[in-house]
Amino acid sequence: MPRVATPDSRIASRKLEVILRHSARVFAEKGYEGASIRDISRASGVSLSGLYYYVESKQELLYLIQIHTFRTILAQLYRQLKGMSDPAVRLRVLVHNHLEYFLRHPMEMKVLAREDDVLAGEYRKDVAEIKRRYYGMALEIFEELRRAGQARQLNPRIAVLSLFGMMNWIHTWHRPQVDPQADALSDVMSQMFLHGVMNGHRVESQKTSRAGRSTLKVAARAAG
Amino acid sequence: MPRVATPDSRIASRKLEVILRHSARVFAEKGYEGASIRDISRASGVSLSGLYYYVESKQELLYLIQIHTFRTILAQLYRQLKGMSDPAVRLRVLVHNHLEYFLRHPMEMKVLAREDDVLAGEYRKDVAEIKRRYYGMALEIFEELRRAGQARQLNPRIAVLSLFGMMNWIHTWHRPQVDPQADALSDVMSQMFLHGVMNGHRVESQKTSRAGRSTLKVAARAAG
DNA sequence: TTGTGATTCGAACGAACGTTCGACTCAGGA
DNA sequence: TCCTGAGTCGAACGTTCGTTCGAATCACAA
Prior knowledge:
homodimer; 224 residues; mainly alpha; 71% helix; DNA-binding
C-alpha cells in the first residue's frame, strides 16, 4: 500500500499512521534536527531500516506530518464555516477550530509552529501553498469584518498575523492541567482580538493615539 | 580576559562579541541543532578549536546569546518605565521596548523565540529565571490596568501570554522592506491588545458572549 | 635575549548521523 | 510444493558531529 506518490493515499497505511504519530512526538520533544531517525525507530517500534520502507527520508516524515495537519484543519474549517455569514461569528469559528485542533494535537502543533524553515524543494512549496490558503481564509474574514463597517482601519496583514501569533504561541506555555481548554480559550482570544482587554472606555482617537506615541518617544529620549 | 565565570565580564572581550554575533546569525538561519560548530567557525572566521578558547561548549554559545539579550531588554525596560505611572502608557512602553529591540536584533529574536527547550542544567535555570522576571513585569502592568478599573475581568496569564505571542510571532513573518517598523508596529499592537480590532460597537455582555459560544457549539455539531 | 602567559590552530578522537543493502520471514495463489 | 511480492531487519556505508590536545605564534615584561 505505501510507496505511492500522493500523501493522502500514503496515510491510508495503518502502520505509517503509527510512525507519523510517534515521529510527531519525537520531533516535538527534540526538534526536527535534534531528533534522529534512531529516536523515531525506537519510539515507534519499527527498525531503523524498516522506516525507509514507508518513507523516503527524514524530511518526508516532517512533510507528511505538516501537510496532513494543515489539510485536516483547513477541511474542518471549511465545513464549520458553511452557512455562517456574520463576519464576527466566522472569525470566532476560525479561532475555535484552530485552538480546538491544536489542543487536541499538541505535538503536531509544536512541530507546525517551530519547524517552519527546514523543509526544502517540493516539500517546502507544498506546505507553503496550503499555509497561504489558510492565511488567506483568515484575511478574507477580516476584510468582511471591515466591509461590514465593524473593524477599524488596521493593516489587515498585521491584524491577522497577530491573531495567529496569539494562537500559535500557545504551544510554548499551555499546560492542560492548569490552563483553560479550547472552548474557554477561544472565547477569551476571540474577545481579545475583537475588543481588546480594556473596559468601557472608548477607543482613542487617531489624534490621542499620536499623542500617546510621542509620549513614548519622549520617554525613550529621557531614558537614553 | 575570557575564561571567567560571570557572563557579563565574558562579553567584555571584543572577540567573544564577534563570535556571539555570528553565532546568533547561524543559529537563526539553521536552528541550534541544525547549526554546527564548524558553521560558526566559518562564519566568524575563528578556527574550530579556537572557538573553545572563548567558550566551553556549543550550549554555552546559545546560553550567552539568550542571557545577554534578556538582560539588555529588561534593563532598557526598567529605565524606560521609570517615572511612568499610567498603566496604559506603561504597557505601551513595554510593547515598544520589546519590538524595538527585536526588530533591531532579528537574529537574536529568532533564537530567543525558537530555541526555548534546548538548554539544560544551570544554563536552563538561569535563562528561565530572567524570563520569569520579564513575564512578571508584564503581569504586574496588566494587574495595574485592572486595579485602575480599566481592564476587563480576563485571565491575566492568558492576556499577557497572548500579548507575548503576538509580539514574538513577528519573527516568522516580518519583512523590513514591506512591514511597518517598530514605532508603527508597537502602536498597532498596543491598540489591538487594549481595544481590539472592532469599531465603535460596545463589548458584548457576558450573556451575549455565552450565546456566541453556543452558536459555535451548534455549528460544530452541525458540521459533524 | 629569554621567558611567560595569552591566543590560535591543524589534526585527530570516538560517537552519532541519515541512508543503503542484501537477506530473511511469511501469507496467498498457482 | 514452489513462487512471488510485501514487509522487516541487522549490519554496514561514508559523512559529519562536538570536543580535545599539543604545538605554534604572539605581545611584552624582565
